[in-house]
Design brief:
The complex is a heterotrimer of chains A (about 350), B (about 500) and C (about 325). Chain A has about 350 residues and is an all-alpha fold. Chain A is built from 14 helices and no strands. Chain B has about 500 residues and is of the alpha+beta class. In chain B, α6 crosses α9 and α12 runs antiparallel to α13. The N terminus of chain B is likely disordered.
């Protein structure tokens, strides 16, 4: 009923590193600092570590489920809960993946509008980005893996640029090391987790990995690398900005780039925003791919048509969201859903799967 | 495209009609000769009244000396009465007695002398006496190299295979020949090394060659376009080269070469994008130098594609990015120019394209003059007239120069072409537009394959081993493996001798 | 394209904005021509609109390199202007902010004895001084002082002298208001206390007409804050090393002279620094970021600190290391 993909459509296990990492580094990194600092001050870097550690735990849970099911979430749901209930949950997953792509797309377009092109209306960018994503997703999973891999390669030099602001660094900013209460830290960790969301797409692309169980360690490496990048960025912003200053800066990482001066190029944020597109694109592509692939698995509809429908929906909803408040509400909703999914639903699913398997064996 | 297809179909229909006519009434020799005689260069006569032999040939493609020296004397002998006797008598190895009229016709048309005996109607002696005009092997012109071999392919397929085979004197070098083109009947040879090359690649090529339905195959570039994986791609799918040394080298890497009769360019594949930027001369230089040159070339590509569009993007939207010190000269050169940057850039780019096109279509000597007139006279005049800024002139000229560093001509054209979409998107959305255009091209490249193998390898899929000879070239002793790209059954090229790592003391 | 912006005080509600830009006429080797526009209004947007109404080209502020506040407007507070500057995404963070004694308009709208454009000249002068005589401060640094709850901002002061522009000390802010100015000489002491730097230069009188200068000065300062029995105490430890050169009537090869020089410099630095810090305490401003240092203690209490700051004990210790130098003996 749920056939596995052909061998020549699969990718090597180590690409899981790039896929997971690409999903986790998205639009959030341009401004996550402010949010976590508001809750936990300059001790917020601890929150990055704790929430990262919890994500590693969840990846472990995910791999237990997937290795046992040896298929994607749609098939696993159907196997555990039957066609109807399982299908319903799978459908919710799909909507979540779609909403994820939507949030990323809309947030990025907002950055574009605020920082670069206040005079261009958003639907143009939305349209172009959807068109580009469509052209990637029609290439299939291998092409999407390619863009997440290349996106990371192109994005990495931006990290080097972060060394420039360090000449204005005041390392004393980080002191005292622990200034936040555990409750504050917990709140910051929760907020930080939102940035790590996106690894759930693993549940859709798992069957496309050659020798899936082997990819587990790469998934961990991917998360570790994301943690490293968030930590490094947070470190640079913390020493560069005064705490109060940071609290009033929405896109701290972008503001950071304003000081970069590469002799022939000043005001690096314009380059930064453009190059960052290559980190945004995989997010949207993987989201759309997962959603359309799931539709194809659930309903008798071709993936191409499902993709077209999703692209159209993406365009309509993105254009309908006009102000920052609405985008904020959307971001919050999706991240809340994501949060509960990963922290409650996934462990439940693991237990449930375990029980059902036992029962079936008998 | 559609238009082209329909044309092709119509042609095929016509073609098959004539074929049907042929087979309808079994061709007789007389009839064949009758049709041939319509052409003035066809010669057909009875040697003498006493001789039973009739001789037929196209005087334009036959070496008349062979006829005079080795055939006529034996006919004159009068000792042989039958074709068989004659065949025995004539001291030429390549003779056959053929009964099939179609075969006789084909032979006749490829430069054989046909001798028949009146009376024995359906039988003829066919003696090969081809005389083909070909130029001598000359210097490579497109892929010139300062050091290294200076031979280039010519228009004769036999001479070309000769050039390759003398470099690879092994029985494993296989040549498979197909005839392509309903009118031109072009000989197309597929060369590969048995055991080193993946059979699947060979089959792909042979299958695609056999599927070609086209009337004329005049040059290898026809084949290149027809058998490419994606017909709508501006990027070439196979590398064309005129260097037999390069062909020998890629053959031993496990790739396949297609040589087309009448074309001085061989096609090699499967290939990758970076391969288009490696000149064969890289292998003649020490690896450090070669690696640096390759990186310079790759940089040149990016510079050539992006520089003018970045200029337009920055000047139109992101003037903040220009440092204070650089801003003043820029403003100074831009002020007073009546056009926006995009128009200025397009005008200059088109001028350069015009110059190149004019230079390429004219004989070499005049071409040089054109270059000077265009480059110096028009350039300076445009700046002095205040129509373009000299900064942009410098950028455009450098970009054009950079595009000529690409060793493969076809790729150079592609690079010059894709500059224009970048320019337009840069004008529309600044740096972001450049990114959009770049990511679109990237999606195209990611989807692209060459003979079914990924085009962007070894970058994606990442093949660390293949990186040794892609963007840079590591020394030969490290090139122990064939590239994964070609899926060679024998991956090891040679067993590296265990070097005694020089642990010797300084003065030992 | 705007390169400098100046703000002048008009009355409690309105202020006057001046923008200066340079325009290079077509043709080779032509000199830049300055264009200056002025308008008054309640908000920066209003001023921009008014200026745009008289300018021939679009007024864009992305490339602005310097913003000048007249002393009067600075004393009344510059919050609106700062806010609009930092909100605009096209404004960079390397922007220079300065306070001028004259009207900002006068500074922008005048000729200086240089072939460069006025804006470029102004920026060059201030930038040069930021390297050598006054602490490095740009828009980013200003903002981080301005926002900090435990420090106060400062800006360079410029003054026009004939056909030249001169940097003339520092203006100390409390929140967004200018409360004090310090002289160029003291600004140098401020720089020593504020940041680590090299390639400085310091002159001192040894009494009796003897004069010596320390070159190649490298300085480093450590601030430490202690808390004992709920009482805060701050200590500056200044380490300066340099080469003695150009001694008038001095035998620089003598070890004793060198020691004397060291002592004199130490005294000079401590005396002047103590005086300056006292004054800051009296005004209850903290441009030297002593409060930030205090915050870095785990037992920091902001209310206590603010109560104690003007009376707390601040010690300054200087340690000078001089070597004889010059290529002759």
């Amino acid at each position: 009923m749920f056939p596995l993909p052909k061998e020549d459509k699969k990718v090597s296990p180590y690409f899981v590193f790039y896929l997971i990492h690409a999903m986790q580094i998205g639009v959030g990194i341009l401004g996550f600092e402010k949010i976590i600092v508001q809750s936990a001050g300059y001790s917020a870097w601890i929150a990055i570590l704790t929430s990262g550690a919890s994500i590693i735990g969840l990846i472990w849970v995910s791999y237990r489920i997937l290795n046992k099911g040896n298929n994607d979430i749609v098939a696993i749901h159907a196997e555990i809960m039957g066609k109807w209930i399982g299908g319903f949950f799978s459908f919710i997953f799909l909507l979540y993946f779609f909403a994820f792509a939507l949030v990323v797309l809309r947030s990025y377009v907002e950055v574009l509008q605020v920082w670069v092109f206040p005079e261009v209306s958003e639907w143009i960018f939305v349209l172009i980005i959807i068109f580009l994503s469509y052209s990637y997703v029609t290439g299939g999973f291998r092409v999407i893996t390619g863009v997440s891999y290349l996106g990371i390669i192109y994005g990495l030099p931006l990290l080097l640029v972060n060394f420039y602001p360090l000449q204005y660094a005041d390392y004393g900013n980080l002191l005292p090391i622990l200034s936040a209460s555990p409750a504050d830290l917990f709140k910051a960790s929760k907020e930080m987790t939102l940035n790590f969301l996106g690894f759930e797409t693993l549940f859709m692309f798992y069957p496309f990995i050659k020798d899936g169980p082997k990819s587990e360690k790469w998934a961990y490496f991917g998360v570790l690398f994301s943690i490293f990048i968030y930590l490094f960025t947070a470190f640079v912003t913390f020493v560069y900005f005064n705490q109060e200053q940071l609290k009033s800066t929405i896109w701290a990482t972008l503001t950071l780039w304003k000081i970069v001066d590469l002799i022939i190029v000043e005001r690096f944020e314009y380059i930064g925003i453009s190059v960052w597109f290559f980190s945004i694109l995989p997010n949207i592509c993987i989201g759309l791919w997962c959603a359309s692939r799931g539709m194809n698995r659930l309903f008798p509809i071709s993936q191409r048509n499902a993709l077209k429908v999703f692209c159209l929906l993406l365009f309509i909803i993105s254009v309908l969201l006009t102000d920052r408040q609405q985008i904020g509400v959307l971001q919050n909703t999706v991240s809340q859903v994501g949060l509960y999914t990963i922290y409650f639903y996934l462990p439940c699913l693991l237990v449930f799967q375990y029980i059902i398997m036992k029962v079936k064996k008998r | 495209m559609g238009f082209f297809k329909s044309k092709l179909k119509r042609f095929n229909r016509d073609n098959s009609k004539t074929k049907n006519e042929n087979s309808e009434h079994e061709l007789q020799i007389d009839e064949l000769l009758h049709r041939c005689k319509e052409s003035n260069d066809f010669v057909s006569y009875r040697y003498s009244n006493s001789s039973p032999f009739y001789i037929h040939y196209y005087q334009t493609i036959v070496d008349i000396n062979i006829l005079h020296q080795y055939i006529l004397p034996y006919i004159k002998d009068n000792s042989s009465k039958t074709l068989f006797d004659l065949q025995q008598a004539i001291p030429i190895d390549n003779t056959e007695i053929i009964t099939n009229v179609h075969e006789i016709r084909d032979k006749l048309l490829t430069g054989c002398i046909v001798i028949e005996v009146k009376g024995s109607l359906q039988e003829a002696l066919v003696i090969s006496a081809v005389s083909l005009e070909k130029r001598p092997v000359s210097l490579p012109e497109v892929e010139y190299s300062v050091v290294g071999p200076k031979e280039a392919f010519v228009e004769s397929i036999d001479a070309n295979i000769n050039l390759v085979r003398k470099r690879l004197p092994i029985p494993d070098l296989i040549v498979e020949e197909v005839k392509v083109g309903s009118l031109t009947k072009t000989r197309v040879a597929v060369l590969y090394i048995e055991g080193v090359t993946d059979k699947e690649n060979v089959n792909t090529i042979l299958q695609r060659l056999n599927e070609i339905e086209f009337d004329q195959i005049v040059d290898s570039s026809f084949i290149n376009q027809i058998i490419s994986d994606n017909h709508n791609s501006p990027f070439p799918h196979l590398i064309d080269t005129e260097r037999p040394d390069r062909v020998a080298s890629v053959l031993s890497e496990g790739k396949i070469t297609i040589i087309v009769d009448g074309s001085p360019h061989a096609l090699t594949g499967p290939t990758t994008l970076v391969e288009f930027f490696s000149a064969f001369e890289d292998y003649f230089l020490s690896w450090h130098i070669a690696s640096i040159f390759r990186l310079v070339r790759l940089f040149a590509v990016f510079f050539s594609v992006l520089s003018t569009s970045l200029y337009v993007a920055v000047l139109t939207y992101h003037y903040e990015m220009i440092p204070e010190k650089l801003l003043n000269p820029l403003i100074a050169s831009r002020s007073g120019i009546p056009f926006p940057p995009i128009l200025e850039a397009i005008i200059l780019e088109l001028t350069i394209e015009l110059l190149r096109e004019a230079g390429a279509r004219l004989p070499t000597k005049i071409g040089q003059t054109i270059g000077i007139v265009g480059g110096i006279v028009i350039g300076t005049a445009a700046v002095q007239a205040g129509l373009t800024s000299n900064v942009l002139l410098i950028i455009v000229a450098l970009a054009a120069l950079a595009s000529f560093t690409t060793p493969v001509y076809q790729m150079g054209n592609t690079i010059r072409l894709i500059r224009f979409p970048f320019l337009i998107t840069a004008q529309l959305w600044g740096l972001l537009g450049v990114t959009f255009c770049f990511s679109y091209i990237l999606s195209h490249l990611l989807k692209m394959t060459s003979l079914g193998r990924p085009y962007l390898a070894p970058m994606y899929p990442l093949r660390l081993n293949d990186l040794r000879d892609s963007m840079f070239r590591l020394p030969f002793f490290m090139q122990t493996k064939r590239p994964l790209q070609v899926r060679s059954p024998v991956r090891t090229r040679f067993q590296p001798k265990k070097h005694e790592k020089s642990k010797r003391d300084i003065e030992d | 394209m705007v390169q400098t912006i100046g703000y002048d005080y008009v009355n409690g509600e309105e202020y006057e904005g001046t923008v200066g830009s340079s325009n290079i006429p077509p043709g080779e080797e032509s000199l830049p021509v300055n264009e200056v526009f002025t308008a008054a209004g309640k908000t920066t947007q209003r001023i921009r609109q008014k200026i745009q109404a008289e300018a021939a080209r679009p007024v864009v502020v992305g490339r602005v390199g310097m913003v000048i506040f007249n002393q009067e407007i600075a004393e009344h507070g510059i919050e609106t202007q700062i806010d609009s500057l930092q909100r605009n995404p096209s404004i960079g963070r390397k922007l220079l902010l300065v306070v001028s004694k004259e009207k900002a308009k006068e500074i922008i709208d005048s000729e200086y004895s240089r072939s460069d454009s006025v804006s470029q000249y102004l920026i060059d002068v201030v930038e040069q001084n930021l390297k050598e005589t006054i602490p490095k401060i740009n828009f980013h640094r200003f903002l981080s002082h301005y926002y900090s709850k435990d420090a106060d901002a400062f800006l360079p002061i410029i003054e026009k002298q004939g056909k030249h522009l001169k940097v003339n000390g520092l203006g100390i802010f409390k929140d967004d208001k200018l409360v004090d100015t310090i002289s160029l000489g003291d600004a140098y002491i401020f720089k020593i206390l504020y940041e680590k730097f090299r390639r400085g230069q310091f002159q001192v009188e040894l009494g009796g007409g003897e004069d010596v200068s320390l070159e190649n000065l490298a300085s480093k300062t450590k601030i430490s804050v202690e808390k004992r029995n709920g009482k805060y105490k701050a200590t500056f430890k200044v380490k300066v090393s340099g080469r003695a050169m150009e001694g008038v009537n001095l035998d620089l090869t003598d070890k004793k002279t060198i020691e004397r020089i060291e002592k004199a410099v130490e005294k000079e630095i401590t005396d002047r620094a103590e005086k300056m810090v006292k004054r800051f305490q009296e005004l209850d401003v903290d441009p030297l970021r002593i409060g930030e240092k205090g915050r870095q203690r785990a037992d920091f209490n902001r209310r206590e600190w603010q109560e104690q700051y003007s009376e707390m004990e601040i010690n300054i210790y200087a340690e000078v290391n001089a070597v004889q130098s010059g290529i002759i003996e």
